Amino acid sequence: MKVSILIPAYNEEATIRELISRVQAVDLRLLGFTKELIVIDDGSKDRTVSLVKTIPGVRLVVHKKNRGKGAAIRTGIKYATGDVVLIQDADLEYNPQEYPVLLKPFLERRTKVVYGSRFLSQIQKQKNIQFLQSKKMIKAKHDNAYTLAYFGGRFLTFLTNLLYNAKITDEATGYKVFDAKVLKSIPLKCTKFEFCPEVTAKVRKRGYRIKEVPISYKPRTFEEGKKIRWKDGIHAIWTLLKYRFVN
Fold this sequence. Notes:
By secondary structure, the chain is of the alpha/beta class. The protein has one domain: Spore Coat Polysaccharide Biosynthesis Protein SpsA, Chain A (Alpha-Beta Complex), CATH 3.90.550. It has 9 helices and 7 strands. The protein has helices spanning 16-25, 48-53, 69-79, 99-103, 122-137, 143-164, 180-184, 195-205, 230-245, and strands at 2-9, 34-42, 58-63, 84-87, 113-117, 176-179, 210-214. It has a 7-stranded mixed beta sheet, sandwiched between helices. Helix 5 packs antiparallel against helix 6.
């Protein structure tokens, strides 16, 4: 089997080389998987494109203008040739060494969708809380934004379970993995960060169970390039509500 790893990137010169190196270092042969790496640059204004061009074994697709993460993922889906599609953010918040945990469920043909949850592990749950507390203790510039993002993510999960009976713990996770045929069959319209709620809503409306596995998570700060804002949370809520009633 082949896994297509889609890496949407926008102004990620600080992390893109290290991230790709970590992805390439993961050995999936014992699981019977080969890897296909596709970087979708979403109109970066820094050196992201030039850096990726120097790395062998990576397919690079470039948006001339910035269109948003959702648009980048949709472009990547068109180029994906694998049996499974895995979404990998271009920062270092999520650890590629956990690919075997994310992919192993697909060896059972019944599994079509897997999410990596930051809340299934008690250790990671405690780290999430410690991160928030550390920002408040040092009175970080964006400390309220971190708290809002945390509780906003928890609310999105609650709303997803209420509207779609998803029975999941982490709707906003960056690690989402799909059977390629299933993902390609879903007409996505997202352009920005609403990819997560849209794809979650639509896989559930089609009756697919979302299997969760525990993952680790190392959040980056806004100073380090974190891009999601409170307006994206409002858009995510609206997306979940909208697709409950329309396709």
